[in-house]
Predict the 3D structure of the following.
Amino acid sequence: MTKMKPYLKRAWAEVSLSQLGRNVKIIKELNSQTTGIMAVVKADAYGHGDEQVCKYLYNECGIGYFAVSNLDEAVAVRQYCPESEIFILGYTPPEYAHEIAEYNIIQGVISTEYAVRLAENTPVPMRCHVKLDTGMGRIGLKHDTPEECADEIENIMKIKNLIVEGIYTHFAVADSDTHDNIAYTDRQEKFICDTYKILENRNIKFEHLHFMNSAGTCYRNNPASTLARVGIVMYGLHPDINLEIPEGIEPVMTVKAVISHVKTVEKGDCISYGRTFTAERTMKIATVTVGYADGYSRLLSSKGEILVHGKRCKITGRVCMDQLMIDVSDVEAQAGDIVTLIGKEGDDCITADELATLYGTIGYEVVCGISKRVPRIYTGGND
Ligand SMILES: *Cc1c(COP(=O)(O)O)cnc(C)c1O
């Protein structure tokens, strides 16, 4: 484990690279031989740290394809993994097309107009995959029939300095098992696969066709897909809390902090801002060195629990910017003790997914939200 200066031992995240590796191994087994992994490392690898994650995936897991949200992220990944393929899922202002080309990055193309503008801004050929909007309603070519879609793709292919290497789409509800939603995803999948086939019949065969996200990979993987764009499940979290993920996939990130202060309060004493918590009896209260500026949401005030020596202790009153208080009446706790906000301790475990449910969001937002102030400590890199 990387050594931390003692004064930094306030709030930190441990990122288990060996667990990341185990998750990837399981995901690879889900996929057919014809489907590779495009590791989604946008948003600083969902808050896990894109440099370490990319290097580990590339060097130790044999993953050579990365997806990011923008050009800055793409250029960073180019530095970490000079030989990798890098795909930008989202929007790059067309004025930067020459940089996309210069760094040998692949851009998602979301409309003919956008394709034209990109091409105008690069003197050399730029690689791209064309995005189809088959039901997400976000970006991409939108048509009633795959034939019309194929026609537009053919026109995009005629644009000088654009090299179209694939087509892709994005599922809106692959993380749902209701009959209606499964049918919806079936239609999205059929639309893009039909478009691909129509182009094939016109003697246009793209190297890549991709539509699976984590949920697609776990619940409906399809050998027609040349790449699976896997994000959340690689980090060990659920695309949807209500659906199981394959056994052995575990969270990669653990978040810890320390107890700075322990005191006894009497019945009637108030804890934290707003006096939202009043002790109803004599209690032992510990102050923990983490707050909403670290990404531990204020919405967890009086709701969240923290593991202290393997036991759950409830937050008393409001989460502050840098600190919060918990009820440690039933555990041995003293200043300097390490506590777990997200992760395993003893037999118990608090997951990002569990915290997310407490305040009406998803695990994705919890891990992405662990702020820059929280140092990432990497473990298990050489397992
Ligand atoms: C973020 C993203 C993904 C990854 O989704 P997960 O649910 O995290 O697997 C895949 N494709 C696109 C287009 C995305 O924006």
Remarks:
- The pocket of pyridoxal-5'-phosphate is lined by residues 40, 42, 89, 170, 213-214, 229-232, 239 (CB under 6 Å).
- The two ends are 12 Å apart (CA to CA).
- The mean pLDDT is 96.
